[in-house]
Amino acid sequence: MSKKNDKNFIEQVIRVNHAGEFGAKRIYEGQIKYLKNDDDLETVKHMYNQELEHLDFFNKELINRDIRPTLLMPLWNKLGFLLGAVTAKMGTKSAMACTVAVEEVIEEHYQQQIEKLKKNPKEKALLNKIKKFQQEEAEHKEIGIKHDALESPGYTILNTCIKRASKCAIWLSKRF
């Protein structure tokens, strides 16, 4: 990969991951506002706090590397909160189904980045952070499954729709 392509790839990684972690933050904020059960709230707050750590890292990377965020941040702000609020209003199982769907996409997305970053020894610190974040996203998926996500009403449809929307958000955030 040429230096220019390498630079463009790294910028794309930082931009899209920042957008994704911001979207996750907003999803959890929507869920926190509308979930009723205190135990469920504590579980979601745990995942939310990890997402804040991820977002903080990518915020700093944007600044340190002088990379602009995606132009779609206002959209992700509204849609992320809406997705979290709607799934929470549907019930805890649906909120957890949302987590499972999003995290499955992110886990795969991070794996694709990891494979490319392994070939760039200058980006070892970024690679290690993404590996750590991928493990935490996988943990979130497992938490969702343990909290009966698969029993959510209309799980298959909800899962498919959220996964497609997440993949679309990734595609758009890479480009804009």
Q: Can you describe what's shown?
A:
The chain contains six helices and no strands. The protein has 176 residues and is mainly alpha-helical. The model has no long low-confidence stretch (mean pLDDT 94).
Question: Layout of helices and strands, plus pairs?
Answer:
Elements (H helix, E strand, L loop, with lengths): L2 H32 L3 H27 L8 H18 L1 H26 L6 H23 L8 H21 L1
Helix pairs in contact: 1-2, 1-3, 1-4, 1-6, 2-5, 3-4, 4-5, 4-6
Q: What's this entry about, in short?
A:
This protein has 176 residues and is mainly alpha-helical. The chain has helices spanning 3-34, 38-64, 73-90, 92-117, 124-146, 155-175.
**What multimeric state do the chains show?**
single chain
Helical amount among residues, as a percent range?
A: over 70%
Helix count?
A: 6
Number of strands: 0
Strand coverage percent: under 5%
Helix/strand-derived category reads: mainly alpha
User: Biggest β-sheet: count, sense, barrel?
Assistant: none
> What best-fitting shape do the alpha-carbon axes yield?
elongated
Secondary-structure element sequence? HHHHHH
Q: For the record, give the distance between the C-alpha atoms at the N and C termini, rounded to a whole number.
A: 22 Å
Measured on Cα atoms, how large is the radius of gyration?
Answer: 16 Å
Mean pLDDT: 94
Could you name the ranges where pLDDT drops below 50 across 5 or more consecutive residues? Answer: none
